Amino acid sequence: MPGATATGAPRGALGGLVDRTLTAARHGPVGVVLRVAAMATAAIGAAWIHRVNDPGVLCPLRAFTGIPCPMCGGTTVFIELGSGRPVQAVLANPVAFAGAIVFAVAPLGLGDRWWALRPNTRAWVLGAALLGSELWQLVRLGLLRV
């Protein structure tokens, strides 16, 4: 059927635009710009929502147990960036901040190096990052004294 994709969905002007945008977001400098623009829009939106109506603690583990998860502060990273406070964003969760940067620059081909690593090496790197993040959160929230 003309105008339909392999999945059967119609492909109009909007569908073609979305396809081209998603393809561009996977490759090269245009991909970085598109990703950064999407992340900035989300960060500004999150900061605005937080300013208008603070929802409180969003992490279910922390809400029920009082113990933060390794990614606690991830939403705060985007709220602080959207509010124009990059230092507070890094202090909220350096691992989530670094992850956002890695995600943004991935279209430049840096992901190829990651996937070239052995699976065990990737597991150790991710495990060390999560452990470091959890320790950071425990210290940041005053549950662990250094």
Overview of the molecule:
The chain is mostly helical and 146 residues long. Helix content is 68%, strand content 0%. The protein has 8 helices and no strands. Helix 4 packs antiparallel against helix 5. The longest helix has 25 residues, at 28-52. The protein is globular. It starts with 12 loop residues before the first helix and ends in a 6-residue tail after the last helix. The model has no long low-confidence stretch (mean pLDDT 84).
Quote the distance from N terminus to C terminus. Answer: 66 Å
Shape: globular
Helical element count?
Answer: 8
SS elements, strand count: 0
Structural class: mainly alpha
Radius of gyration: 19 Å
Helical fraction equals: 55-70%
Beta-strand residue percentage: under 5%
Summarize the structure.
The protein has 146 residues and is an all-alpha fold.
